[in-house]
Amino acid sequence: MKIYITDGTPETFFTAAADAVNDEKCMITSDEAIQLAFDSEVVKVDCDENKCRRMIDCIAKYDPTAERNILLCLRSGDGLKEQTALEYIRKILQYRDSVSKRLSLPEVIIFNETLSKVTGEIHKMTGFLRFMESANGALYAPYSPDNNITDLLMPHFAKRFGSEKFVIHDLKRKIAGMYDGRECIMGYAGEAEIYLSEYEKSFETLWKKYYEAVNIKARPHEKQMKGYMPVRYWKFLPEKRG
Amino acid sequence: MVDAKRLEILTESAKYDVSCSSSGSRRSNVAGGLGNASFGGICHSFTPDGRCISLLKILMSNECAYDCEYCPNRRSADVPRARISPDEICELVINFYKRNYIEGLFLSSAVCDTPDKTMEMLYETVSKLRRVYNFNGYIHLKGIPHADESIVMRAAKLVDRMSYNVELPSERSLKLLAPQKTKNSLLLPMKNLRNAIEDEKQNGKRRKILPAGQTTQMIVGASPETDGQILKLTEALYRNMNLKRVYYSSYIPVVRSAKLPAVGAGLLREHRLYQADWLIRFYGFDVDEICPADENLSAEYDPKCAWAIRNMQLFPVEINSAPLEMLLRVPGIGAKSAYRIIEARRFTALDFDNLAKMHIVLKRARHFITCKGKFYGLDGEEQVKCALMLANGDETNEQLTMFSDRENAVAAITGEI
């Protein structure tokens, strides 16, 4: 069985997919740590712009909205995301039509689930992201999301923060989105050293106090809280850090 | 800056208000301003009681001139009192908002001195927040009964949502437990605001007054009204006042009084009311179908299940041909599942296995459907009832104590079934 290993970029994925769609038994992954079967044949894929473009055009011919969704799927933190996207493309080519409404196809069910995990986390993070005010007034939010969503989160905050400068830092992927009050840029960011504003501690303390006071102790319901707000996100929430 | 002690007192006093939703408004930011509103609403945190924090929910003052029996802040109660100034609130909102702790402000107040003065104070605060601090995030403002209409109208132009709480499900209970509030002092301002919103709509003007509409809240279980009466009132409020939401707060005995029951109403009753409310708003049910006026909702079954059991002659329905309205009436099939079924069956006839793979919950539904003519449920009404009671028992325990995923958890709060 052929295993196409990509560098994780969408371009390389589409390059690999152009070959993979003609081979029923192959796999695409960007996960280098993948367990190989004894008969696997590893193919390291290099991005080929022409091939990539042709693959995308071919998909768009049958379903113009598919590219956008496939790109979203490829942002998933799931190790099988490339395979999920490949199976979805196969179905589009098989039916020569959009399959987005064929909701009983297993390939479509898995694809849609992967998508909603990505879009669901974007929505969650519009609420759970926490900014700190630095000494120079810029806001800084570290987090480590399951999916690669930072650039998709930037416009939401840019719209509401107006002229406030802010940085959203994905510690897991070592990337950051920066907004200077006018436009967003994305870049590499390892570790960041932040000097907090003198008011930061006071507002954080008030927030913790608020969180404690607004709870109705007579009605404990921890499991519901955790259902809505998974424990893995707590690390970055001042009210849950204790 | 407000100190922690006052923040604590004024939050403790505000927390029994159920509504914390920040949805329904598309307010956008302006140059040099801070904030906007997100139409779907955003939850920023969840407290150990399972409720969401979306807005900073706080009273301006808990020094109350009224003596409502059930209220921890009533005049005769011996509790610590505090107040917070408009600037202190603005500072708190701006700084919490910048850190993404909150989506906006839910401002309320005890009736401090007179209703007019209180409303004036609330107006001053939201006006300052909008005009001086240039804040464009969500604001939910509580209306003060008996306050002058002109102040209320000025405030309504600045905020996203207002609420007058009807407090209790009947005029008689209101008289008994909240003697200074009258039915008219709550319903008249609601009606005025509705008219103002309608006027704006009809004249095709840009929506300024309460883009997210009005809501209300009532305490359930502090007075003798049945679920049927409560739902009738709910339906009337949706129809006549165009309310966006009616919230129920099951009575918690925080205050000892001879006029009040000694025990709380329990979460199950509140949960069933929300489920029924959901059926009325989104599933095309009438109150009479769900619950007769002098009865309570069933504790054993959710209201849709109870309705289906009473109407067994309508089932089973064929999943591949039933119209949407009927799919929505199948116990266990919600709006999302119904939509998925309708889309999927256009391409291929669905069997039981397809439904399971599509994550349609079949625990209850299987007794009410056929797939390609085949029935997978139990035969005999008694057996079905028994199975449903078990399934609902699971659901009740699950929904009240355990939440495995977000969809379930949302369902518990909104009442979606």
Q: What percent of residues of chain A adopt helix (DSSP H or I)?
A: 40-55%
Mean pLDDT of chain A: 95
Q: How do the helices and strands follow one another from N- to C-terminus of chain B?
A: HEEEHEHEHEHHEHEHHHEHHHEEHH
Task: Output the CATH class name of the largest domain in chain B.
Answer: Alpha Beta
Average pLDDT of chain B, to the nearest integer?
91
* Largest sheet: number of strands, sense, barrel closure of chain B: 6 strands, parallel
How far apart the termini of chain B lie comes to 45 Å
Tell me the number of helical segments of chain B per DSSP (H or I, 4 or more residues long): 15
Number of domains of chain A: 3
Question: Key features?
Answer:
heterodimer; A: alpha/beta; 3 domains; five-stranded mixed sheet; three-stranded parallel sheet; 45% helix; elongated; B: 417 residues; TIM Barrel; six-stranded parallel sheet; 10% strand
Write up this protein:
- The complex is a heterodimer of chains A (242) and B (417).
- With 242 residues, chain A is α/β, with parallel strands linked by helices.
- Chain A has helices spanning 10-20, 49-62, 66-73, 81-95, 106-128, 150-161, 200-214, 222-228, 238-241, and strands at residues 2-5, 27-29, 41-44, 132-133, 139-143, 166-170, 175-179, 184-188.
- Chain A is built from nine helices and eight strands.
- A five-stranded mixed β-sheet of chain A has the order 4-5-6-7-8.
- In chain A, strand 1, helix 1 and strand 2 form a beta-alpha-beta unit.
- Chain A starts with a strand and ends with a helix.
- Chain B is α/β, with parallel strands linked by helices.
- Chain B has helices at 4-12, 86-98, 115-131, 149-156, 171-177, 183-202, 227-241, 267-282, 287-290, 303-310, 324-327, 335-345, 352-357, 381-401, 406-414; strands at 45-46, 52-53, 55-59, 104-108, 138-142, 161-163, 214-220, 245-250, 317-318, 369-371, 374-375.
- Mean pLDDT of chain B is 91; it is low at 397-415.
- At the A-B interface, helix 5, strand 4, helix 6, helix 7 and helix 8 of A face helix 1, strand 1, strand 2, helix 2 and helix 12 of B.
